[in-house]
Amino acid sequence: MDPGGGDDALPRRIERPPGASPQRFHAAPLRLHGSERAPQRFASFTRAALRVLRREARAGDLLVAVGAHGELPATLLGPALQRLRRRRIKVVTWLREASLGQVRARRGRLVYSALNALNGLQLLGSQLVIANGSDTAAHVSQRFPWVAGRLVTIPNGVDMARFAGLPPLDLSARPLRLGFCGRLIEVKGFFDFVALARSLSDVPVELFAWGPSSERTPAFEEVRRAPPPRLTLRPPLQPDQVPAALGSCGLVFLLSRSLQGEGAGGVSHSTLEALAAGRVVVAWDSPHHRQVYGDGAGVLVREGDVGALERVVRRCVAEPAYARELAERARRGAALASDYSCERHVERFLEAIEPLLS
What is the rounded CA–CA span in Å between residue 334 and residue 135? Predict the structure, then answer.
């Protein structure tokens, strides 16, 4: 069950691939649109999920609950998952990210503390906990030390075929295109990208920001009304539009803030899509970026240092030797991308759950 986005769907049973063990997968893909994440929608999602479990769950099933560490729908299922154990149903909690830091920043310490306690109940009722990044795993094991023995890390996967046939990287093109994909909010680094645009008014570049704004703050409205001259705000990309958008850029910026180690961590799709596109990635030197780009596959700079971002762009434009170095980093990243394919993602998942299916 995933409170992520998309339309509600009917539960279904999925047989394992031929040649695999005979147990069946049980999938109940109930989902919420991001714009509907009000408390009443969370409660509605939870009630629907519990109805599905009562109707569909059978002894010996493996239930996989997918959500962020800090999302309310998953945490509300915690007490229910405890009761499922009496029906000999095994539970896997798959954490997409550690978003409790964002909750604390937006909702305050009281809501943060309540969600943290509910997350503990969720994990307590799980026989296996999957984190989608080493930083998320470290955060969870530090917050709940007793879960370490049942915690594994499985990075996200990307359909690499979607990125086949992109034009080769060309850092000599002028104006040089710089891209940002993600929510246009502070914790995702949007205003750092805006500050970068303002600092490059004399450089032959174009900056593009694709994404929604879930927080219509005065600061965002000011940028929307009067963006810096070289910055263009674009609507959110559909999945099939992402490769072409990233492929049109020379440099892609990943600027999500770590929020003192409790921000949105994990290996996100945007992180891997930039890798698969074979573009130069410029990112904050934080745990969730370092696990992918820390071996020279991208350019990591001190978090919050917009001046360092500016220097990377100016050197890329002015110094051919540095541009060649960046291109080599992009090629190195593209070579790593196969380890984050959807096929490898599924292989890791099957390996992780195999002990629970015996």
Answer: 22
